[in-house]
Amino acid sequence: MIKNAERKFSSAGLSLVEVIVGAAITTLILSGLIATYNLYFRTALTNLRHVQVAFLAEESAETLRFLRDGSWTNLSSLTVGTNYYLTFYNGNWQATTSNLFVEGIFERKFVLNNVYRDASDDIAPTGTLDPNTRKVTVSITWSAGVATTTKSLNFYLTNLFND
Asked: Structure pTM?
């Protein structure tokens, strides 16, 4: 009779241990799933900003080509080495020196630099100034937490229509 009571007591204790081990395994699995979801979510948000920056940089390049196509003086009249910002005002793109943030997040600016040609008419660091070509650097800057990130796009614009 005592042995039956010991068996019932020992099996009840064994069931309690099984429940605790099962709960611990379930908690570990759920914690891992939540951590994986958080990592995925943070990565997705970071990737969103990079995609937006790529579109803003491409839009900036297209806008500067549009300004160039309108008239070369739209670009040649701008001061070399000065930060400019793009704005869409009254249905037209314009370059301004007033800092404008896109969506309140991104600072989009561009700088025009002179281009020099060597004796072979190749672009060179020094040589003869080419008044019909400008090197453009578009920079998009944004804050992510405590860090600031900047992506840049460099290209050349040429006076295609000699106006």
From this structure: 0.72
